[in-house]
Amino acid sequence: MERLTDISTIRDVLGRHGFTFSKALGQNFLINPSVCPRMAEAAIDSNNGLRAEAALQREKKGTRAVLEIGPGIGVLTKELLERADKVVAVELDKRLLPVLEETLGDYDNLKVVNADVLELNLHRLIAEEFGGMEVAVCANLPYYITSPVIMKLLEDRLPITSITVMVQKEAAVRLCAEPGTRDSSAITAAVRYYCTPELLFHVSAGSFLPAPKVDSSVIRLRLHEPVVHPKNEKTFFEVIRAAFAQRRKTVLNSLSSSLSLDKNAVRAILKTAGVDETARAERLTLEDFARIADAVDDGRK
Predict the structure, then answer these.
(1) What is the pLDDT of residues 243-287, one digit of tens each?
(2) Bridge partners of residue 138, in order along the sequence
(3) Are residues 127 and 243 in the same domain?
(4) CATH code: domain of residue 262
(5) Looking at CB atoms within 10 Å, which of 38, 186, 254, 266 has the fewest?
(6) How many CB atoms neighbour CB 218 within 10 A?
(7) 13-29: string of b/e by CB count within 10 Å (b at 16+)?
């Protein structure tokens, strides 16, 4: 179906299926015709740094695969289907299944899965649907599940190369912030541990139907091996969450309170890690957190 970004077309399709937008699901469909092609190109081109020869081999083998989360009525999906060999779209709202059948029924390289991505076994889905293909993730994420979805994709250690997503502009700034800067947060540190984030472009609220109250941004996360190597990854993330739990406090007070440790014990941990006890979490680097986590683990032995 053509003109999926045309408001009258969208209203006509949705009206035929008796569809109404769900605030609970954070449904805002893209209607700006310039956004989805740019997102799709960013997702498909996620391995741009590889050698031309290797890229050519992938082209010959047909390895361009995309896992999309939340296709909505298929505006972004259509652009992905035009560029990828296969797209698997995970949609939670079963009311959209007949809509997608109408809007994207002409494509034979699409499979729609009606499920909650947070509950899915994504390792199994990728193995069954893509079998050896090089997979990128692309999504226009509802604001309320941005962090849970991104962290699931990263923590599950999926065989994917990149994640290209539309998120709230404020969230994009946090996700792409450099550790040790004012905009950094717990999710900043977590994201940097697993990947390199890029803020690609901003998208105005008027690009959606219905229009949200805030602007959005498209970011791309290129996955890589962890850049630091704490002795215990669980402790590493525990320390990060504890440090940012009360971000206005010093790291000494935050860790003492959140980890239920005596201040003298935390003071000794920070001294061992070479971290200033008066610093705040936003000023710490991944290396700082790794050294603190190792000192915490050593103290628990």
Answers:
(1) 999 888 999 999 999 999 999 999 999 999 999 999 999 999 999
(2) 68, 164
(3) no
(4) 1.10.8.100
(5) 38
(6) 22
(7) bbeeeebeeeeeeebbb
Strand ranges inside 117-215, DSSP E: 134-140, 160-168, 195-203, 208-209
Report the first-to-last Cα separation within the chain, whole angstroms: 63
Which residues make Cβ contacts (< 8 Å) with residue 59, sequence separation at least 6? none
Residue 1 in domain: no
- What sign does the CA torsion over 82, 88, 93, 95 have? positive
Secondary structure (3-state) at 277: coil
Residue 2 placed within a domain: no
**Which residue's entry shows tokens 């092609």?**
37
pLDDT recorded at residue 242: 96
204 in the same domain as 255: no
Which residue segment(s) compose the domain that 177 sits in?
A: 7-223
pLDDT for 56 beyond 80 = no
Same domain, 287 and 183: no
Residues 43 and 150 both lie in one domain: yes
Average pLDDT, the chain: 90
Q: Is the pLDDT of residue 290 over 90?
A: yes
Residues 158 and 39 in one domain: yes
Quick check: 177 pLDDT over 70?
yes
- Band of pLDDT at residue 131, cut at 50, 70 and 90: confident
Are both 191 and 281 inside the same structural domain?
A: no
